[in-house]
Amino acid sequence: MSAAADALAEYRPALRPRVLLSDALLDGAATVHLIKDTDSGSSFRVGPKEHFLIARMDGERSLREIGEEYARAYGRRLDGARWQQILRMLGARGLLAGADARTPAGPAAPEGSVASERSVAATGPAEPARGVLRGSVRLVADADAVTARLHRAVGFLLAPGWLLPLLALVVAMEVVVALRMGELLFSTRELFTNPVLLTGAATLLWFSTALHELAHGVVARHHGGTVAEIGLRWRLPVVIMYCTVGNYLYLGSRRQRIHTALAGAVMNLLFLLPFCALWMFAPLDTATHDALGALLLLGSAQAIAMLVPFPPLDGYRIVSQLCGATGLAASTGTYLRLVARRDPAAADYPRRARTAYLGYGLGSVLVLALILAAVVAAAHHLLTV
Q1: Is 357 exposed, middle or buried (0-12, 13-18, 19+ CB in 10 A)?
Q2: pLDDT confidence tier of residue 130, bands split at 50, 70 and 90
Q3: Please, what is the Cα angle at 39 between 33 and 40, to 5 degrees?
């Protein structure tokens, strides 16, 4: 072995600390991993073999040691030219510690290498858009610091001793909503005839959406995530708050990602608990009682709507995590079109992908049918009361 080749074999590459790697995700018929540079905000996809190599670049293992592990896993050794291509690509993207000084030079990576993977959102943080009819604006300069303070203040509620009793109360509340649905539908109709109480209920529901967004950030922070932005987004006449978790797909486990996505809807329901208590037990005049009942029904519907598994709702994020997929809706559409045309390319999808896409497609049809049935039943009840 030449001195140059020996030096390359003993090189111990290390990813920069702020480089994140995702779990394996389905993307069409392929399995990919996402890699993100949190400093620049850029990200890209690699295949399982490339991820195997990159994930082991910890500054402790040499290329010789990583190569031996790769050979045991895949039955193939990488030569010096291939290592140079991979390191050169990672260095050019600024993903390696000391890349400018230490990355060996080499030719551009060939087709099939890490550098040939297609780009994903390869842009840095964008300035918030502003316009009269639509746009967004940041509310705080350091969203992550604000979320950290909120987590210090209320994070204790995420402990099982607090969270489980609260969830039990939420379940009990929703049972009451289901059992007294007819009464609540009547109260909702009455609310829309009272402009003052309707404005109050709408304001409370808007505040609930703000808490919904902050809950995503607090739970993400609880699991080691970071919050990139907190702001307002408008599509007139609608104005809503948003909270962007910058590293959602890179949280430590699938369970943590599901918890983060679920947090908003749970917060919507927790927000309703005191109003439910007032509606059930407080001595109120008829108008106020009806307004609280309507708030209870509309707030519950709002929370459940967020769990519908269609993009860009939270339910879609949850289902995507359960399926272990990125771009689940688009991939499902592509696969089902291939199946409908009896295209031989459909057979190239692995069994896991076929199961995920068929399941999501059939589940989506079922959810749409249930939503339509609920709307028809509610309309029929209101028209016949």
Answers
A1: buried
A2: low
A3: 75
Backbone phi, psi, residue 46, to 5°:
-135, 160
Closest CA to 29 of 359, 288, 347: 347
The candidate with the shortest Cα–Cα distance to 18, out of 96, 98, 127, is 96
Dist CA 72 CA 124 (whole Å): 38
User: Which has the closest alpha carbon to 103: 200, 8, 201, 3?
Assistant: 8
The answer to whether the beta carbons of residues 316 and 329 sit under 8 Å apart is yes
DSSP state string for 293-351: HHHHHHHHHHHHHHTSSSTTSHHHHHHHHHHTBSSHHHHHHHHHHHHHTT-GGGGGS-H
Question: Where residue 327 falls among pLDDT bands split at 50, 70, 90?
Answer: very high
Q: Over the stretch 176-197, which tens digit does the pLDDT of each residue have? A: 999 999 999 999 999 999 999 9
Question: How far is residue 204's CA from residue 199's CA, in Å, rounded to a whole number?
Answer: 9
Q: How far apart are CA 191 and CA 194, in angstroms?
A: 5
> At residue 128, does pLDDT exceed 60?
no
Backbone angles phi, psi at 112, to 5 degrees: 100, -10
List residues bridging with 119 in a β-sheet: 44
**What integer best gives the mean pLDDT of the chain?**
89
Q: Helices (H) and strands (E) in the chain — how many of each?
A: 14, 8
DSSP 58: B
What separation in angstroms does the CA of 222 have from each of 143, 154, 216, 326?
15, 10, 10, 23
